[in-house]
Amino acid sequence: MLRARPTIRGATRAGENGYPDIRLGDGTVVLSLLDSVIGVVATLILSALAVVGRALTPSAGAVAALFGAVIVVSAGFPFLALMVLFVVASSLATRLGFDQKSARKVQEGIRGERGISNVLAHILLPTAIALLVGLAPSVLSSSSGAVLFGAALAFGAADTFASEIGVLSGSARSILTGRLVEPGTNGGVSGPGEAWALVGSLATAVIGVGLFALFSTPLSQPGPFVALVAGAGFVGCQIDSILGELLENRGLLTKGSTNFLGMLSSVLVALGGLWLLGPH
């Protein structure tokens, strides 16, 4: 059973600083007005830095700023912080060995920047989860929402690490048939890539536990949180590869839609895990 203490999901307890509260859903206090403004401004600054640093295109940065603001106001700072760390880690993985990737024509964008379709594929579900946490806590508690949110980002980290670092291994095999394929081929996997996928999903889970503790919304059972988040993220990464080989290679899915469905599968796996654990 996963439970979080019924605390305010922000840096400052609403009302303690003399500013109005931000209340959503059943009246649960999420952030004070001041903290909400701070969160939105921080989101805008971070998105602008991502554009300046060429991690995101200008349009992708605008989308990230909009959805990031919704996340922090709806669910609080730990949710936004985990999203920001995911973007930073993904950018670093994308830049790793970029010249080698560019020579093979398997690089992301022109100089490693990610476009609007990639951002939407990775931010729609996390934002929807954050909104449910804020607007309907009786349907999705902060504790359960943290698991689903973490699973979504664990998939993103696993998929990015597997593709961006695994492609440097020099060889890959079809996830379905085992035949040799060119690195970077949809559905192609490698030992190093799978190892990095596990690193990405596990790191997301462990960092998530720390962030929720740091922002005063600790989970009472971090072990199940880590297991569910890391496991769901890794499984979703494998489903993404299968969809890539079966459907994307045939033009039935785009890269963005494949990523979205892979992330959705991770969320569903985590949801199934929560159901098996019982009331939460």
Structural key phrases:
globular, 280 residues, 9 helices, single chain, three-stranded antiparallel β-sheet, two-stranded antiparallel sheet, mainly alpha
Annotate the secondary structure layout:
Elements: E1 21-24, E2 28-32, H1 33-52, H2 58-75, H3 77-95, H4 98-104, H5 116-135, H6 142-164, E3 172-174, E4 180-181, E5 188-189, H7 191-214, H8 222-248, H9 255-277
Antiparallel strand pairs: 1-2, 3-4, 3-5
Low-confidence blocks of residues: 3-29
| Counted beta strands | 5
Secondary-structure content class: mainly alpha
**Tally of discrete structural domains:** 1
Question: Approximately what portion of the residues adopt beta-strand conformation?
Answer: 5-15%
**What is the overall number of helices?**
9
* Overall average residue pLDDT: 86
Order of helices and strands: EEHHHHHHEEEHHH
Q: What is the global morphology?
A: globular
- The helix content, as a percent range, equals 55-70%
Placed side by side, the strands forming the largest sheet appear as: 4-3-5
What gap, in angstroms, lies between the N and C termini?
A: 5 Å
How large is the radius of gyration? 19 Å
Major sheet description: 3 strands, antiparallel
Describe the structure.
- With 280 residues, the chain is mainly alpha-helical.
- Helix 1 packs antiparallel against helix 2, helix 5 packs parallel to helix 9 and helix 8 runs antiparallel to helix 9.
- The protein has one domain.
- The chain has nine helices and five strands; from the N terminus they run ββααααααβββααα.
- It starts with 20 loop residues before the first strand and ends with a helix.
- It is globular and about 55 Å long.
